[in-house]
Amino acid sequence: MRREDDTDPVDTRLGLRLAELRAEHGWSLGELAERSGVSRSTLSRAERAETSPTAALLNRLCAVYGRTMSQLLSEVEAAPAAVVRAADQPVWQDRASGFDRRSVSPPHPALRGELVEGRLTAGADLAYDRPPVPGLEQHIWVLEGSLEVTAQDTAHRLGAGDCLRMRVWGPTRFRCAAPEGVRYLLAVVRP
């Protein structure tokens, strides 16, 4: 058994990612063992980074999860950058709907949360028919202007400084009725 201070950081991140993948599929260690042909104890030790997984073990797990080994390793090779410079924050614009989205703290496989700055022009109305991940946690903090957010058939009117906290299970709608537009910060946390 490996001592805690001898653990390779890549093995630690790989173990965490393997545990996340199993959880995303809703499988127990026993179910994954049956699907992969790898013992429960070996799977458990790999997820806890008590052992460095072999290429053969990773190949079996990649087959079960429908990934190439390169895909899996790319998800864990580098730790997320501690600082994301403003110039490196990707901006996406939906000009047709009047929505600008800056990824202030972009998603990373090693992190559960991200920060997004949203800007809606006056009259912008965005409707989403479902969350990308059911149960997604969102915190919406209005920085300037006002915003109406509808979730689970309840409309919330938010002014500058207000914050809406919610888990998203169904359709949502973001609407800007303010003549000056709205700027808000969206914190997203995966379940």
UniProtKB/TrEMBL annotation:
Keywords: DNA-binding. InterPro entries: Cro/C1-type_HTH (IPR001387), Lambda_DNA-bd_dom_sf (IPR010982), RmlC-like_jellyroll (IPR014710), RmlC_Cupin_sf (IPR011051), TransReg_Diox_bact_type (IPR050807). PROSITE patterns: HTH_CROC1. It comes from the Bacteria. The keyword DNA-binding applies. Gene3D superfamilies: Jelly Rolls, lambda repressor-like DNA-binding domains. The keyword Phosphoprotein does not apply. It holds the Pfam family HTH_3. Residues 18-72 form the HTH cro/C1-type domain. PANTHER family: BLR1115 PROTEIN, HTH-TYPE TRANSCRIPTIONAL REGULATOR. This is XRE family transcriptional regulator. It comes from Streptomyces levis. The lineage of its organism: Bacteria, Bacillati, Actinomycetota, Actinomycetes, Kitasatosporales.
